[in-house]
Design goal:
Pfam families: Lactamase_B. The chain has 313 residues and is of the alpha/beta class. 39% of the residues lie in helices and 23% in strands. It has a 7-stranded mixed beta sheet with strand order 1-2-3-4-5-6-7.
Length: 313
């Protein structure tokens, strides 16, 4: 691919279908992509910063020959929507629940981050100073990536403006283009309060958002609905799917949906059995973001305890 960005690696999936896979230390954080329908270009998610989104827009215009006319926000989390302002001339589409969550949560969150810019700058300077004394190569590489990431946040904040979706849907929205059709589908809550995927049936491909993580630990939140997340993955597995583009990690296949489904099932079983073993199963040891496993354990154990306490009232 004749395109370079420090924020993402551009992967050509098929003619007119591109996945933008986030690079460590860049301003993307989550994955994104774009699709040429023949007469219009769709962007799927917009990254964590404007500078990463600018590169995505440039790539989309270069490889489709036109400006994006529609942007999809798969869910409300910042690493998938904070680049929206770069596409302000396009229609921005999400579920209504995603729109409401963005509108209710992000204004205060962004305002607080802007108010804390001096603290962020001081923290970055402290990390840079401490980085000089790190001797272990792997630790130094990880610290370099952390510093680079924080600098991207620092760079983005002064000009960051929340740009909300301009159009919403409930469960399905279909695009019919000259070259291909695409289906935007929401199964409701899963990773977030409401998640959407973009399915390209003729290409046997889906942009999965954060319903799919490939060889990196999924992140569970208070809002996550593990049971419905499993059902969502099972529903997509009924499609004629070959290529699955995750919200985090490298491009995968339908097999990776099954792997993540089984990962989540383990945690559901822990909750049901009220047993939370801390040792990570062998098959996940090579996955990135390993600290997330313990955070997920903590999340579901606290939710289980809260449910018990509520039942005793």
């Amino acid at each position: 691919m004749e395109f370079y960005s420090k924020h993402f690696e551009l992967n050509k999936i098929n003619e007119g279908i591109f996945a933008a896979i986030a690079k460590d230390g860049g301003g993307a954080v989550g994955n994104a992509g774009f699709v040429d329908l023949g007469d219009k270009t769709i962007i799927f998610d917009t990254f964590n910063t404007q500078q990463a989104a600018e590169d995505l827009k440039t790539a989309a215009e270069k490889f489709t020959g036109r400006k994006p006319s529609c942007v999809i926000n798969s869910h409300w989390h910042g690493d998938h929507i904070r680049g929206n302002q770069v596409f302000k001339d396009a229609e921005i589409l999400s579920t209504h629940r995603t729109f409401e969550q963005m509108k209710n949560v992000h204004p205060e969150r962004i305002r607080n981050q802007k108010d804390g810019m001096d603290d962020l700058s001081g923290y970055i300077k402290k990390l840079i100073k401490n980085n000089c004394s790190i001797e272990t190569p792997n630790e130094k590489i990880n610290m370099d990536k952390k510093i680079a990431f924080l600098k991207e946040i620092e760079s983005s904040l002064p000009g960051l403006n929340l740009t909300l979706p301009t159009c919403t849907f409930q469960t399905e929205f279909e695009f019919i283009g000259q070259k291909r059709k695409a289906k935007l589908i929401s199964f409701g809550s899963g990773h977030s309060i409401c998640d959407s995927i973009l399915y390209l049936p003729d290409d046997h491909t889906a942009f999965m958002g954060d319903l799919l993580f490939v060889e990196t630990h999924p992140s569970f939140f208070e809002e996550s609905n593990l049971e419905n997340w499993i059902k969502s993955l099972e529903a997509v597995l009924q499609f004629n799917l070959q290529i699955a583009i995750p919200g985090h990690g490298q491009v995968g296949t339908a097999d990776h949906l099954g792997i993540v489904k089984n990962y989540i099932k383990r945690f559901v079983s822990m909750k049901q059995e009220d047993s939370f073993p801390e040792k990570m199963p062998y098959e996940y040891l090579h996955w990135s973001n390993g600290e997330m496993y313990q955070q997920n354990i903590k999340m579901i154990s606290e939710k289980a305890l809260q449910k018990k306490e509520e039942a005793m009232k």
